[in-house]
Amino acid sequence: MRKLETKTIVVASHNAGKIREIQDLIGPLGFTAKSAAELNFVEPDETGTTFEENAKIKALASAEASGLPALSDDSGLVIDALGGDPGVYTANWAETPDGTRDFAMAMQKVETALEKAGASKLEQRTARFVSVLCLAWPDGHTELFRGEVEGAVVWPPRGSQGFGYDPVFQPEGYETTFGEMSAEEKHGWKPGDAEALSHRARAFKIFVETCLEA
Fold it and tell me: Which InterPro entries match (predicted)?
């Protein structure tokens, strides 16, 4: 595993919610970070069929464009009753004809699919959020870190915190959705903590332990 020697990196994302969460996680570690959106980098086509492949595509594009290490995240909601959908196409389910993303529409699309699948009870709606972080260097070297959190899809949506599908995801062992949790509650982790809650925080914890700690 290659250690990260610099505190200056690029967050390889154009998703405002994701950028905010990653910056919240790396901020306490003293990083100086700019996003691919701030730097006006063109979003690469995510042609991979796995979270790992798409995370690599995004991180490598920003590392090559900036000449700095870049950290990307590819994440999604994997629902058992839907055969793993929306999975790597989680963001695509929110796409509108004008190119914007409507997650209220996407959550309704998920609910309609679950109803069609006959999954009306909470125990039939098991799901997990998956996050794969990729740290890429300008020379093409990459490191991958995967985090998952088990839970279930609820309806109707609850809460206005977070972003994306957070209002319909209730993590295992909790009565509240990610949409009802503050950022601190959702991540459940900061550097030095033993446990993490969210998929992104779990992946980030592995990244810190692997690439930052001596």
Answer: dITP/XTP_pyrophosphatase (IPR020922), ITPase-like_fam (IPR029001), RdgB/HAM1 (IPR002637)
- Is the residue at 36 inside a domain? yes
73 labelled as ligand-binding? Answer: no
The answer to whether residue 74 is catalytic is yes
Asked if residues 13 and 91 have their Cβ atoms less than 8 Å apart, the reply is no
Q: Give the C-alpha separation, 124 to 116, whole Å.
A: 13
Q: Is residue 26 part of a domain?
A: yes
Ligand-binding annotation for 141, yes or no, is no
Residue 92 has pLDDT above 70, yes or no: yes
Work out how many domains the chain is built from and give that number. Answer: 1
Q: Are 29 and 209 in contact, with CB atoms under 8 Å apart?
A: no
Distance CA 35, CA 12 (A): 6
- In this predicted structure, the answer to whether residue 214 has a pLDDT above a threshold of 60 is no
List the one residue out of 109, 133, 198 whose CA is nearest residue 161: 198
Express each pLDDT in 131-164 by its tens digit.
999 999 999 999 999 999 999 999 999 999 989 9
Q: Does some domain include residue 87?
A: yes
Helices (H), the chain: 16-26, 51-66, 103-116, 183-187, 199-207
Say which of 24, 73, 74, 80 is annotated catalytic. 74
Decide if 71 is inside a domain.
Answer: yes
Q: Are 13 and 36 in contact (CB under 8 A)?
A: yes
Q: Is 192 annotated as a binding residue?
A: no
| CATH number of domain containing 172 | 3.90.950.10
Instruction: Give the pLDDT confidence of 100-127 residue by residue, as tens digits.
Output: 999 999 999 999 999 999 999 999 999 9
Q: Model pTM?
A: 0.92
